[in-house]
Design brief:
- 40% of the residues lie in helices and 14% in strands.
- With 362 residues, it is of the alpha/beta class.
- Strand 5 (171-176), helix 7 (186-199) and strand 6 (203-209) form a beta-alpha-beta unit.
- The protein starts with a helix and ends with a helix.
Length: 362
């Protein structure tokens, strides 16, 4: 009986520790500043009619594969090894599998896929046109390589020529993963100048970057918030909009803190974007994660808490009202970040996305 009591005490302690995880508290001067930011944020106006929803696609994980159960703990619900007979020799994407994937995408209320430019060799452009699927393109990983600028220009040429490239105000939107540090943003100033010279004002450059450069030491103070606001302004002067990287998972103790984001992050971002220097000129985008866990290694970066993390983040997106949001990712069951239907989780993620997609569209 003592052993059982000890075990129950341990479980209770773990639950209590989980519940207390979250962002650092606000100092009194920070509380006052947040109240000011909230008033300033009333002037924020998004640049799109509604928040557009995309999901990043690791297109190499096709429905025709037969090795999911040998490597991962789950597999796509629509897995069908007989699709291999349709597999082209020189392309990775299976055309019949793509049709099923595009149908699932529409069923979930997504507006399109996000694909890194280096995946274009997988026949993404051609197949996305056959299903009328909009594509948000991420700039190549080789941006800082020896031929990085040439790779950027090739990416721009390919996306400019695609009729289904994601556009806002008629301009092609380009993002980039992983995040770009503030010290690296200068390359996009040069890139934008080259694009304007060749195409005119036809692109929107929004690489991932951080809202807060680092977590505070102890309580969040007004000085800390003002320093981060100034950092955000410097970044916005070099790029066309702010696309937040997933820094929040490291600040919150591996548990999502939606209350903090809606209280602090939303007015933090909206107040700066509503300043005369940026209002009506810059764009806003945010990522959405279902969680980030590796079942084999028994470790994770962010607890999904079933579907609670996903739902809570969507509530933040409703409050923030960005121009578009990116759900990460479509098909990485090995990290429990996936949105596509699977055997173990069914269509739970798609149902949630569809519900909030309808709310975005009123």
């Amino acid at each position: 009986m003592r052993l059982v009591d000890s075990f129950l005490c341990a479980i209770t302690a773990c639950v209590a520790a989980t519940a207390s995880a979250g962002a650092p508290p606000l100092a009194p001067d920070a509380e006052a500043l947040v109240a000011e930011m909230r008033e300033q944020a009333r002037r924020y106006r998004p640049r799109t009619d509604r928040t557009m929803l995309f999901t990043r696609a690791q297109v190499k994980y096709g429905l025709e594969r037969d090795d999911y159960l040998h490597r991962w703990y789950d597999r796509p619900l629509a897995t069908d090894v007989s699709l291999k007979k349709y597999q082209p020799k020189n392309h990775v994407l299976n055309p019949e599998g793509w049709k099923i994937t595009a149908a699932d995408l529409r069923r979930g209320g997504f507006d399109g896929f996000c694909v890194c430019h280096h995946r274009f060799s997988y026949n993404v452009r051609e197949l996305s046109l056959t299903t009328d699927t909009p594509v948000l393109t991420e700039m190549p990983y080789s941006t800082w390589g020896p031929n990085g600028f040439e790779a950027l220009m090739k990416c721009a040429a390919d996306t400019y020529a695609m009729p289904n490239s994601f556009r806002i105000d008629g301009k092609v939107v380009l993002s980039r993963y992983p995040e770009t540090k503030e010290s690296q943003l200068g390359v996009y100033v040069d890139f934008a100048q080259a694009l304007n010279k060749k195409y005119g004002d036809s692109f929107i450059l929004m690489p991932y970057t951080r809202a807060f450069d680092h977590a505070p030491k102890g309580a969040i103070t007004a000085q800390y918030l003002n320093e981060q606001r100034e950092s955000l302004r410097r970044k916005l002067r070099k790029i066309d909009g702010f696309f937040s990287s997933g820094w929040v998972r490291y600040m919150y103790g591996k548990r999502y803190d939606g209350e903090f984001e809606r209280k602090v992050l939303v007015p933090f971002l909206q107040s700066v974007l509503s300043e005369p220097e940026f209002a009506g000129k810059k764009y806003l985008a945010m990522p959405i994660y279902a969680g980030h866990e590796n079942c084999y290694l028994w470790r994770y970066a962010w607890d999904c808490e079933g579907t609670e993390t996903l739902c809570d983040q969507f509530e933040t997106i409703l409050a923030l009202r960005p121009d578009y949001a990116l759900c990460c990712e479509w098909g990485e069951e090995n990290e429990n970040t996936h949105f596509r239907p699977t055997v173990a989780q069914g269509t739970s993620a798609l149902r949630i996305v569809r519900y909030f997609s309808d709310r975005f569209a009123n």
